[in-house]
Amino acid sequence: MIIFDKKTVTRRSVLQRAVAAGAVASVGPWFVRDARSSSGELNWFTWEDYAPKALMDKFTKDTGIKINVTLFDSNETQLNKLRAARGEGFDMCTPTVTWVGAHIDAGNIQPVDWGKIKTVNNVQKTFQRLPADQGAQRDGKYYCMPYKWGTEALTFSTKAMNLEYGKASFGDLWDPRWKGKMVCRPRSIMLGTGLWMEGKGDIPAGSMKKSYEDEATMVKYYGMALEHSIKNKAQIGKFWQGTNDTVVAYRQEGCVIGQTWDGPPNTMRNEGDPIKYLAPKEGALTWCDTLSITKGAKNLEQAYEYMQWALQPEVGGLMANETGYNSIVIGAEKHTNPNYQRNFSEAYPGDAIDKLWFQGEEKPWFIAKRQEFAAKLQAA
Hints:
The chain is 42% helix and 17% strand. By secondary structure, the chain is of the alpha/beta class. Helix 11 packs parallel to helix 17 and helix 12 packs across helix 13 (263-270).
C-alpha cells in the first residue's frame, strides 16, 4: 500500500519544485543526435486515448522512428493479451503502476534500465518513487518508467446539475434523481461507493485502503459496497470499460453523472460538451500509468528512445493538452494550453490535491477477487 507524505504528493508542490528545477528539464544536443541515428520502428500497445495524432507525428518528426500503435481499453485486457502472447508482438506497453507486479509475475515484461534514459531526472521525484512503492521494482531492477497520472472522480452534465466542491460526493452517483442515468466501471464503482460508505460511518475509516493488503478486509468491505451497488443497480445506465464507452454514455445514451477517468470529460468539454469533471469530498482516486518493455521486444533502442523523448517538458505539455491527463515531467505545465489549465483548476479546487486518494498495489489475489465482484455486479 502506498503511503505518501502530503507535502510531497500535492500537485502544487510538484509545480513549485518544477519551477525550481526547470534547468534540469532542458533538452540538449544529444537528443537530436541520438534520435536521428536510431530511426526504425516501434510497436506500442497502449490505452485507446494515449496516442493522439499530434503526439505521434511529433515523435516521428523528432526521432525518425515510425510508431505502430495497437490500442486496448483496460488493464485486464492488456495483461491477458500479453500473457496469452507470452510478451511477444509488441516492444512497449503501458500498464498502470499498480498492475506492473502482475505483468512481472506473468512474464510479460523485462527490466527497464533507467540509466539508458537520459531524461530520467526530468521525472518529478514523487513519481520516481512509485515503482518501488507499488511492487514494480524487483531485486533492485525497475520494470517500468512513470509516464502520466490522472484520477477517477465525478463527471456530470452541467445541464442536469451543478455539483459543488466540498459537498459533491461519490454518494451523488446514487441519488434517485439520476436513476438509469449513471455511468460507472464495474470494478471501480465499488471503491468509490466504499469510500462514501466510510464517510457515512457504515464502513470503518481506512477499510478500503487496508483492502489492498488484507484479503479478508477486502472481501468484507468490497462485499458491502457490492451489495449496495447490486441493490441499486437500476441507477446504472451504462457500464464503461474504456474511453469510448464513457463518451458514448454521455453523448448518445443519456447519462448525466458518473464515476470516470479525467481524460474523456476533459476532451469532451474542450469540444464543447456541457460536461464538467470534479473531485469528490472523499478524494479523487489517483493512478499513474507507466511505460514498460515487453519480454519479446524486438526494437529495444526505439523503446528507450520513446521513453527519453516523452520525458521532455514540451512533450509532457503536448501530451497533457492532447489527452487531458497529467504529465509527470518537471516543467511540463509551462507548455500546457488554457483549456488544460482551466480543466485542471476546476477539477481540483481548494484542498482537492491534498486529498488525492492513491490506490494501492493490486496483487493477483486482489485483482481476481475484485474481478469476481465486478462480474457479479454486471450479472445481477
